[in-house]
Design a protein that fits this description.
Low-confidence stretches: 1-26
Helix content: under 10%
Number of domains: 1
Order of helices and strands: HEEEEEEEEEEEEEEE
Structural class: mainly beta
Distance between the termini: 47 Å
Largest sheet: 7 strands, mixed
Number of strands: 15
């Protein structure tokens, strides 16, 4: 029994570290998206987002960009946090799963909705990326990519309550993520952006059943620009 009591304290701290960052308030829930694979490029889309901080009417949030160290990894990416705070007067619900999951509904449902919260950056620090394409002339040409990159995507299936987190007024969640985009060292301005959309996914009752989806934008949010000095990691002295 005494051994169980001794283990109880360390185990409680271990589980707390899963959902809370150092110095984080207890009413903040943390989602770790650092290992999430980037989805296929979505084309030009509605990006890059507004340069003016704020939010749309249907998404009453304050979005903050937190950059703990500014130390660039060898691939040029940096660890960042997106903090989303409910600044409205009513409860809001946000998707928190890093796994998109299946597009098939859970029985006995035939239709469902998929909420998608997309988070990304704009900055003068983002490096240009190029694709090598072989042209009709037989030559290889370097073309600058125009597809905006994202930092994290959170999903919520309507038939799985575990995919969502309810935020009371003034409560926050933190999404811990990689920038995914390569950044240049130096002092730069960075801005975070958020978009919440809902896909309605249903079945076509035809001789060959198929799935169809329509998307509705719920709202967007933009952070205050943050000025940060980004630096490459110094080699360890031997």
């Amino acid at each position: 029994m005494d051994r169980l009591k001794l283990l109880a304290g360390p185990m409680a701290l271990l589980f707390a570290s899963v959902s809370l960052l150092p110095g984080q308030l207890h009413d903040q829930f943390m989602v770790d998206a650092t290992r999430q694979l980037a989805p296929p490029a979505r084309g030009r889309g509605p990006f890059p987002g507004s340069a003016t901080p704020g939010h749309s009417a249907d998404l009453p949030i304050r979005l903050d960009l937190l950059i703990p160290t500014g130390e660039l990894k060898p691939d040029g990416t940096v660890l960042i946090d997106f903090r989303i705070t409910n600044i409205g007067s009513e409860l809001i619900t946000l998707p928190v799963s890093i796994d998109q999951g299946s597009f098939l509904p859970q029985p006995p449902d035939t239709d469902f909705t998929l909420d998608i919260l997309t988070l990304w950056l704009t900055s003068d620090a983002i490096r240009d990326e190029y694709l090598e394409v072989k042209g009709l002339d037989g030559q290889v040409h370097r073309l600058k990519t125009e597809s905006p990159a994202t930092s994290a995507e959170l999903y919520g299936h309507s038939d799985d309550p575990q995919n969502f987190r309810a935020l009371a007024p003034n409560q926050s969640i933190i999404v811990h993520a990689s920038s995914r985009v390569a950044l240049q060292p130096g002092t730069h301005s960075l801005t975070a952006h958020a978009e919440l959309a809902r896909e309605f996914i249903g079945s076509n009752n035809t001789s060959r059943p198929s799935r169809h989806a329509t998307t509705r934008l719920i709202g967007t949010g933009d952070s205050e620009p943050q000025t940060k000095t980004l630096s490459t990691a110094r080699p360890t002295a031997r």
